[in-house]
TrEMBL record:
InterPro entries: GT18_cat (IPR026116), MGAT5_Glycosyltransferase (IPR052105). It catalyses: N(4)-{beta-D-GlcNAc-(1->2)-[beta-D-GlcNAc-(1->4)]-alpha-D-Man-(1->3)-[beta-D-GlcNAc-(1->2)-alpha-D-Man-(1->6)]-beta-D-Man-(1->4)-beta-D-GlcNAc-(1->4)-beta-D-GlcNAc}-L-asparaginyl-[protein] + UDP-N-acetyl-alpha-D-glucosamine = N(4)-{beta-D-GlcNAc-(1->2)-[beta-D-GlcNAc-(1->4)]-alpha-D-Man-(1->3)-[beta-D-GlcNAc-(1->2)-[beta-D-GlcNAc-(1->6)]-alpha-D-Man-(1->6)]-beta-D-Man-(1->4)-beta-D-GlcNAc-(1->4)-beta-D-GlcNAc}-L-asparaginyl-[protein] + UDP + H(+). Residues 186-503, 504-619 form the Glycosyltransferase family 18 catalytic domain. This is alpha-1,6-mannosyl-glycoprotein 6-beta-N-acetylglucosaminyltransferase. Residues 93-109 have a biased composition (Basic and acidic residues). PANTHER family: ALPHA-1,6-MANNOSYLGLYCOPROTEIN 6-BETA-N-ACETYLGLUCOSAMINYLTRANSFERASE B (PTHR15075:SF6), ALPHA-MANNOSIDE BETA-1,6-N-ACETYLGLUCOSAMINYLTRANSFERASE (PTHR15075). Keywords: Glycoprotein, Glycosyltransferase, Golgi apparatus, Membrane, Signal, Signal-anchor, Transferase, Transmembrane, Transmembrane helix. It is a single-pass type II membrane protein.
């Protein structure tokens, strides 16, 4: 029958042409998702000549399909005409037509005439079209192979790892790609397909281990155009949009939003004060990503349950205040609390995190914590190294240079799960000013106006003490101390304090360390009584500090309050010495103490400090410096440098107790910018 023959011939022609196309480079398998079946990838192995040949072959294939379709329609039309009027009459049966055809073949045999080709005119047309196409394909292949061989000879050297001293790691990276390019789908996403050229293109244009290939179109790797002028930052007093940016769904976020909403009026007033102080100073609006890693599900989100159970919430207090300060200063914020959001905002390619970002980092600064830092390193590939100077790590207890410097930490036994990041130590931002190695971020406490201070003094509950901390473990082993306290005062827990008048005494039993609650109590007119540690607590002798990237010794529950506030607001005594404890309690009961809040922990103080960091802590100045074998700070952190530019605003430096002093606190080297 004619129909099967037509299908057979059509199939032979179609698959023959497909075979010829795929044999010329095998590039159909390298097409990207979404490409048509006839779209050929030529970035890697195809030059202009082979691209032209393949394009012509593709055109011939499409022409063949069109001709087949037209001929099929023509044949169908011919059959329709023959069916009613073929031969000498109408309505012949199929048997009659078959018999007539047999008689015609017999006549041809007797007379020696050649038999017509099977299928009649349609078969002749098929044969002629296939013959024409075969001739054209043969011509194209011959021409293309000649040109391709010439190009390959010139290209072979260009697709070998060059020995360029400026790119010493190139050959080693090519070897790695040969063995492991299938280990992460991100390589295929960037066009790697197992060929040498694809390795070199990736390593020169996506990563930067190899020199650019001279035969490649360099428009993609040319220097980016100059950025457009940035918008100017304008102080904000309405925080409603910030509350929307913070999201919902987590108890921790609800807690942070409540705190921000409660402090809105103080933030707005502080913004007005700082705006007057800065005058007409122009400030570029920064694009800032805030990724709170400890709130992600991948890190366990251990803090959200604490909101309901009454555990330490100092980290959430600090993060709420950081968000508020950045927003009030007028910067553009993006807030993420999930790994998926982080990947989307950074431009992480699909895969396992071994490749760089798909786009240049769109953020000037990134504020995160150690959990977020780990997540970024896992998913940013080499982009983490490229952009790490833009990262600021909120680090409650600080990171010392010996733990931060990977080589030094490894050789001298300072490696921990939280160290060896090779950042500049100033990129770690602490809750309290522990050390000049790191930057002091801080938080804020509610500031009372004069009327509120008078009400506090008049309404203070005399002879009442409240224990700092809600967890039951805090009370264990404190029976002797509680017995002495109960002889002089009525003792309650923190929950009672939160719903009653402020007490006279706020008592610390040794934990939590360095939280915000003592400052809030002092700001409300309480005296803070805490225990002196002997020996001091550190990572060498206490489980809480073990593994943290610091060897700092803590001599009391709240060293900042002990050192920089002191008496009469803070009393640090040995709880094992009953006489010293009783003497302190009697002195506290005789002393009238007013509410006190250090400037550094007011909204205005924090705004000023973060403004100074953003304006003067430039990414280019955050390179790690070393002297011999020791990792050290860059000089601009020291007293006359890093924050010294604040002196341009007629600021002086003084101790946190308020007394005028030289620029640097002796032994501490801590800078405290306060306006005159």
């Amino acid at each position: 029958p004619a129909a099967p023959r037509r299908l057979f011939v059509l199939g032979i022609g179609f698959f023959s042409l497909c075979f010829l196309m795929t044999s010329l480079g095998g590039q159909l398998s390298a097409r990207r998702p979404g490409d048509s079946p006839f779209t050929i990838r030529t970035e890697v192995t195809g030059g202009l000549e082979s691209r032209g040949a393949l394009r012509k072959m593709s055109d011939l294939l499409e022409l063949m399909v069109k001709r087949m379709d037209a001929l099929a329609r023509l044949e169908n039309s011919s059959e329709l005409h023959r069916a009613p009027g073929h031969g000498h009459g109408h309505g012949h049966s199929a048997l009659d037509r078959g018999e007539g055809g047999e008689r015609e073949r017999e006549r041809n045999i007797k007379t020696g005439s050649p038999a017509p080709p099977p299928g009649g005119a349609f078969g002749e047309a098929i044969a002629q079209n296939v013959s024409d196409i075969a001739v054209k394909v043969d011509q194209i292949l011959r021409h293309s192979l000649v040109l391709h061989s010439k190009v390959s000879e010139g290209r072979r050297d260009q697709c070998e790892a060059p020995s360029d001293p400026k790119f010493p790691d190139c050959s080693g990276k090519v070897e790695w790609m040969r063995a492991r390019w299938t280990s992460d789908p991100c390589y295929a996403f960037f066009g790697v397909d197992g060929t040498e050229c694809s390795f070199l293109i990736y390593l020169s244009e996506v990563e930067w281990f190899c020199p650019p290939l001279p035969w490649r179109n360099q428009t993609a790797t040319q220097a980016a155009p100059k950025p457009l002028p940035k918008a100017q930052a304008v102080f904000r007093g309405d925080l409603s949009h910030l509350l929307d940016l913070m999201g919902s769904g987590k108890e921790s976020l609800i807690f942070m939003k409540k705190r921000t909403r409660r402090l809105t009026a103080q933030w707005a007033l502080a913004a007005q004060r700082l705006a007057r102080k800065l005058g007409g100073t122009q400030r570029d609006q920064k694009q800032i990503l805030v990724h709170i890693g400890f709130l992600t599900e991948e890190s366990g989100d251990v803090f959200s349950p604490r909101v309901l159970k009454g555990g330490p919430l100092g980290e959430m207090v600090q993060w709420a205040d950081i968000l508020a300060a950045l927003y009030v200063l007028g910067h553009s914020l993006r807030i993420t609390v999930s790994l998926k959001e982080l990947q989307s905002n950074l431009g992480v390619p699909p895969g396992r995190g071994n490749c760089p970002l798909t786009v240049p980092l769109p953020f000037d600064l990134i504020y995160t914590d150690y959990h977020g830092l780990q997540q970024m390193r896992q998913h940013m590939g080499l982009s983490f190294r490229k952009y790490r100077c833009r990262i600021r790590v909120i680090d409650t207890f600080g990171t010392e240079p010996a733990y931060n410097h990977e080589e030094y930490a490894t050789r001298h036994g300072y490696r921990t799960n939280w160290g060896y990041w090779n950042l500049n130590p100033k990129q770690f931002m602490t809750m309290f000013p522990h050390t000049p190695d790191n930057s002091f971020m801080g938080f804020v406490s509610e500031e009372l106006n004069e009327t509120e201070k008078q009400l506090i003094k008049a309404g203070k509950a005399s002879n009442m003490a409240v224990v700092y901390g809600k967890e039951a473990s805090i009370w264990k082993g404190k029976e002797k101390v509680l017995s002495i306290l109960s002889q002089h005062m009525e003792v309650h827990g923190t929950v009672f304090y939160e719903s009653q008048r402020p007490p006279e005494l706020f008592i610390g039993f040794g934990f939590p360390y360095e939280g915000p609650a003592p400052l809030e109590a002092i700001a409300n007119g309480c005296v803070f009584l805490q225990s002196r540690f002997s020996p001091p607590h550190s990572s060498l002798n206490h489980d809480f500090f073990r593994g943290k990237p610091t060897s700092r010794e803590v001599f009391s529950q709240h060293p900042y309050a002990e050192r920089f506030i002191g008496r009469p607001h803070v009393w640090t005594v040995d709880y094992n010495n009953s006489e010293e404890l009783e003497a302190a309690l009697k002195a506290i009961m005789r002393t009238q103490v007013d509410p006190y809040l250090p400037y550094e922990y007011t909204c205005e103080g924090m705004l000023e400090r973060i403004h100074a960091y953003i304006q003067h802590q430039a990414a280019g100045a955050l390179r790690q410096h070393r002297v011999g074998d020791e990792p050290v700070n860059t000089p601009d952190w020291r007293c006359s440098g890093f924050l010294g530019s604040l002196l341009e605003h007629q600021q002086t430096f003084h101790t946190l107790s308020g007394a005028e002093s030289p620029m640097c606190i002796p032994n501490g080297q801590i800078l405290n910018p306060v306006p005159t």
